[in-house]
Amino acid sequence: MSTRFAFDIHARDGKARTGTIRMLRGDIRTPAFMPVGTAATVKAMKPETVRKTGADIILGNTYHLMLRPGAERVAKLGGLHQFMNWKRPILTDSGGYQVMSLSDLRKLTEKGVEFRSHIDGSKHMLTPERSMEIQRLLGSDIVMAFDECPRADRPRDEIAASMEMSMRWARRSRDGFDAGGEHAERSALFGIQQGALDEDLRKISAEKLTEIGFDGYAIGGLAVGEGQEAMFATLDFAPAQLPEDRPRYLMGVGKPDDLVGAVERGVDMFDCVLPSRSGRNGQAFTWNGPLNLRNARFAEDQAPLDERCKCDTCGTYSRAYLHHLVKSQEILGAMLMTEHNIAFYQLLMQAMRDAITEGCFAAFAADFRRDYHGSRD
Ligand SMILES: [Zn+2]
C-alpha cells in the first residue's frame, strides 16, 4: 500500500537527524531545503532544472496564488502540479504571513484577516477554513495551518495573545483540512509553533499543537529580524518541545550558516527565497562564503563560481562571464546564478545528510564554518 505520510529517521548525530519523509508524490530526504516557487514558479528556473539540482519538494505561496491566477482557476486547470509541471511534493504556506507583510488595509479578528490585494486593491478574506480550502484547491501535498506571525519584538502579552489565537486557528485548520475529503486522504497537515523567543510560550504552543495532532510541526515566528544569535538561542529549546518522531520545519530560513546551525539543533526542513533572490541580484553562495559577482575583481576570473559544485553553471561558465551577464543585467545571468545557488543549497543539504549518517556532523559543521567565514567578499 502506498503511504500518505511517513517519516523514518535513519540516523542521529547529537541533536541532528537524517531521514526520509514518504509521500504519494515521492520521497523527501531530510534535512531538506525547499526552493520557493512563489507564483507557481521558482523564479528564473524550469521545474526540470529545479529537480536536477536535487530538490525533492518545492514551496508554493497561498497568498500569491489565491490572488493570481486564483485557487479555483488552478483547480479547474488540474491543480498546481499539472499547472506548473512539477510532479513531486509541494508544500503550500497558509497565506497568513504574507497577508500581514504584503497586503494593504488588513483587519485582523478572531475570524481571520480581511485585506486588500497588493496587485489590484480587491478585497479578500482569509480564515483558517478558507486557507485550508485554497490549499486543497491547489492540490498541496503538505498543507500548513493558518496562523498569525507577530514581530518578535512585540510585548510579551501581545505575543502570548497572538500565539493563543494561532492555536485556536490551528484547531480550525485541523477541522477544515479533515473535511477536505479525498485531498485529506492524500496529503499531510503541519501545525506551526509560535511564541517568538519565549521558552514558556513556545512550550504552551507545542503542547496545544501536539494535543490537536499534526503530521509535522513547523517552528514559526523566527527569521523575522531577530538575528542569528537570538534565533539559535530559541532553537536551543524549541525543536525538543515538538514530537521527536515528526518532521520539524523551520520556516523562512535561511543563509547557509543558518541551515547548518539549525540542523545541528534538530531541524529537518527549511524554505527560503534567499538562494533564488540572491541569484537574481548577482550574489552566489559557495563553500568559501558568498561572492558578489558585480565586483570588478571577477572581470577576468576564469574559475567557476565554486570548485566543488557540480551544477551546469559551474561546469560550463566562468566567473568572468557571469560578472559580465550580471553587470549587463542579462536574463541569462539571473538564470545561471539562480541555478547555481539552488544547486549549492542542495549540495549543502546532501553534505549534512552524509555527515549525520557517518556520525561526523560536529566536525563537518566546524569545517564548514571555517571555510564559509574564512574569506568574505
Ligand atoms: Zn554551481
Please tag this protein with its features.
alpha/beta, binds zinc ion, eight-stranded parallel beta barrel, 377 residues, 16 strands, three-stranded antiparallel sheet, single chain, globular
Characterize the main sheet: 8 strands, parallel, barrel
Terminus-to-terminus distance: 52 Å
Describe the strand arrangement of the main beta sheet, using strand numbers: 4-5-6-10-11-12-13-14
Ligand types: zinc ion
Helix percent reads 40-55%
Radius of gyration, whole Å: 20 Å
What is the global morphology?
globular
Measured by DSSP, the beta-strand proportion falls in 15-25%
Q: Count of DSSP E strands?
A: 16
Mean pLDDT: 96
**Spans of at least 5 consecutive residues with low confidence:** none
Helix and strand content put the structural class at alpha/beta
Figure out the total of helices: 17
Describe the protein's architecture and organization:
This protein has 377 residues and is an alpha/beta fold. The chain is 44% helix and 19% strand. The chain has 17 helices and 16 strands. Strands 4-5-6-10-11-12-13-14 form an eight-stranded parallel barrel, surrounded by five helices.
